[in-house]
Amino acid sequence: MNPWLVAGMPLGARAMPVAAGPEPYGLMAAQRVRDLEFLRRDLMGELEAINEYQSHLQQASDPQVRAWLFHIIQDEREHVAELTRLIRRLDPYQEAKFAALHDEGSAR
User: Fold this and answer.
1) What pLDDT score was predicted for residue 103?
2) How far is it, in rounded angstroms, from Cα 39 to Cα 17?
3) Which whole-number Å values give the CA distances from 20 to 12, 30, 94, 100, 105, in the listed order?
């Protein structure tokens, strides 16, 4: 059993080790790999947007503009949380990493 996905994946997907899942032999289906790549790119975009809006917020002087930028930042943070939840649901290997960090943090 090969726990790696190999060449031929679209959009530059690379070999990816995964935990056993619903797919045969624990391999991620090509469509799931594409979905995860889309979600990770979207997550990066949301994080970049937060940084950009935060920079604008620090430079803005008008209270209305500052309030609106703060509201937008909160929306972007919600998007980050939603995308992270989806990634965790679709990628059992990534979920295991989150679980390990949680276990490590609660042991302190």
Assistant:
1) 80
2) 18
3) 23, 15, 12, 17, 25
